[in-house]
From TrEMBL:
Residues 1-155 form the TLDc domain. The gene is Tldc2. InterPro entries: TLDc_dom. GO terms for biological process: response to oxidative stress. It comes from the Eukaryota. This is TLDC2 protein. PANTHER family: NUCLEOLAR PROTEIN 7/ESTROGEN RECEPTOR COACTIVATOR-RELATED, TLD DOMAIN-CONTAINING PROTEIN 2.
Amino acid sequence: LPQLGPHLPPRLTQQPWHLQYSTRRDGFSLRTLYRRGGQPGSPALLLIRDTEEQAFGAFSSSAIRCSSGFYGTGETFLFSFSPELKVFRWTGRNNFFVKGDVNLLMVGGGSGRFGLWLDGDLHRGGSHCCETFDNETLSAREEFCVQDLELWGLA
């Protein structure tokens, strides 16, 4: 988390972060992630390590939750460590920040491509260049298998 500190909104830099969900502790379930996701107005940090040891994720300005449409603000961003930190910020081209249902969590979108997506049992995911963040593929391949996933929120 320390490397991401300078990239977070200034109001959050001195805040204590708390592990809300972890696949190691809580099992692989998107429903459980939503349940443990914290207060609706509270920001969230999603950290993923895939089976090829790539680390990447997303910062969401609001809690990760089930939703009928996209939510979030332009503070939302994607990032990867490959091997150094790269941050992909909002382009302003659309407002497709975060959307979740029981089978799919999406961060970033446009033209049918998602910056980051995860399936309902959090085993598989993918990353594509998307209009929201103009990001590179976060993982080594466009589709990946999740080894570990953590969701951090404010304590």
